[in-house]
Every structure is written in structure tokens, then in C-alpha cells.
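Try this one yourself first.
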């Protein structure tokens, strides 16, 4: 048999230090506090 399986096809985005804030935090995947919880606050992005 053949079944239609619902899907959402997304374009992958490589994440590195230069775009981590925009891709991970601004896009809502994770909170700033969670990503930087082990980093001193004076080193967090503004």
C-alpha cells in the first residue's frame, strides 16, 4: 500500500558562533538564559 505522510520540509541552517544568537535565540528555539547559563553574564551578547 501507499500512504500520504504529512511532512514539513525545512532548509537546514548551519549554526556557528557568528549566527548563533540570530538562529537559536531570536528565532525562538532556545532562551538566552538557557544557552548561556554556564557563561559569565559580562560575556553574554547584548
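Now uncover the answer:
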Amino acid at each position: 500500500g501507499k500512504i500520504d505522510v504529512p511532512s514539513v520540509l525545512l532548509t537546514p541552517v548551519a549554526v556557528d558562533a557568528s549566527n548563533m544568537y540570530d538562529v537559536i535565540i531570536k528565532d525562538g528555539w532556545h532562551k538566552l538564559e538557557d544557552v548561556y547559563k554556564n557563561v559569565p553574564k559580562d560575556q553574554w551578547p547584548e
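Discussion: The chain has one domain: 12-46. Helices lie at 20-26, 32-35.
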